[in-house]
Design goal:
Elements: H1 3-19, E1 33-36, H2 40-47, H3 55-64, H4 67-70, E2 76-77, H5 84-87, E3 114-116, E4 119-126, E5 133-139, E6 161-165, E7 173-180, E8 185-195, E9 201-210, H6 221-227, H7 258-285
Parallel strand pairs: 3-9
Antiparallel strand pairs: 1-4, 2-9, 4-7, 5-6, 5-8, 8-9
């Protein structure tokens, strides 16, 4: 084969290899759950997915398997973009309208609950990947019937807490103070966490009893670590998450597609191939 054809063939092959870099989209990760007052999914995970203690958690596993519990920090909508009420119908608030977490919507009075009182309350959210955004917490109105599916209209329009989240979380927690209004009996604390660096949002339901005496347990750090390898979702971050210390916000491009890099490489290889062809021709002419 003449040298010019060999050079052209090599350049074309290199160009094809560069352009055909797999353009696999980044996987959405799992990023947190309310630990005080403990959310439904976190409370059942704390009991143990393989051997839950409460009847409702046993029924959840019988209905949906153990995976929703191992994925306790995932309950999200990847492209919510603030359209929470549009995307989540009444009766599906706790699951974020995701079939995987359908059991979390069960209207039952035996969900593990946290005892609370009216007044100042210290919220704690365990995050496995911090995100910049806003966490808004609501509580159900007085007269809420826990034997009926949770509706948007059941939530008091005035949040009990609003917290601006950052890309860092002390010891893996967001901690902030809210104010619970006067209520009696069993209620639901509902959390919406909307990222501002992504359309992704996270949701949770925590059962509370005003004037109660018992508190549901949150997962221990040992429990979290023990179940991490059973999770089907990332326990780290993705686009817009906390940046490594060596990078700045200006220098980094989170979740960058490999396409620009591939095209840059392809251009360089094509230029190299063309140069090789030209050099070969000049040598033959001389």
């Amino acid at each position: 084969m003449p040298s010019t054809r060999r050079a052209a063939t090599a350049a074309a092959a290199a160009l094809s290899a560069a352009v055909l870099v797999p353009l696999t989209p980044s996987t959405a990760g799992a990023h947190g759950a309310v630990f005080n007052p403990v959310s439904r999914v976190a409370a059942c995970y704390a009991e143990g997915p393989e051997n839950p203690k409460s009847q409702v958690c046993k029924d959840l596993v019988a209905d949906s398997g153990t995976q929703p519990l191992y994925d306790w920090n995932e309950v999200n909508i990847a492209n919510a973009d603030g359209q929470h009420q549009l995307l989540i119908p009444d009766g599906r608030l706790c699951s974020a309208n995701r079939e995987k977490y359908r059991a979390l919507d069960w209207a039952r009075t035996d969900w593990p609950a946290t005892a609370v009182t009216a007044g100042s309350f210290d919220f704690k959210v365990r995050v496995t990947a911090p995100h910049s955004g806003t966490m808004t917490v609501y509580v159900t109105k007085e007269g809420f019937d826990p034997t009926q599916p949770l509706k948007w209209s059941d939530l008091d329009a005035t949040p009990v807490a609003t917290y601006a989240t950052t890309r860092t979380a002390t010891d893996g927690f967001y901690a902030f103070t809210g104010n619970l209004p006067a209520r009696t009996g069993r209620h639901i604390v509902y959390k919406v966490w909307q990222r501002n660096d992504s359309p992704e949002a996270f949701y949770s339901c925590s059962d509370v009893t005003f004037g109660g005496t018992t508190a549901a347990s949150a997962p221990s750090e040992a429990k979290i670590a023990a179940g991490a390898d059973r999770s089907t979702v990332s326990h780290a971050g993705h686009g817009g998450d906390e940046l490594p210390p060596a990078l700045s916000a200006e220098a980094a491009t989170p979740d960058a597609s490999p396409l620009p890099l591939a095209l840059t490489a392809a251009g360089a290889l094509a230029a190299f191939g063309a140069g090789s062809v030209l050099l070969s021709r000049r040598r033959r002419a001389s």
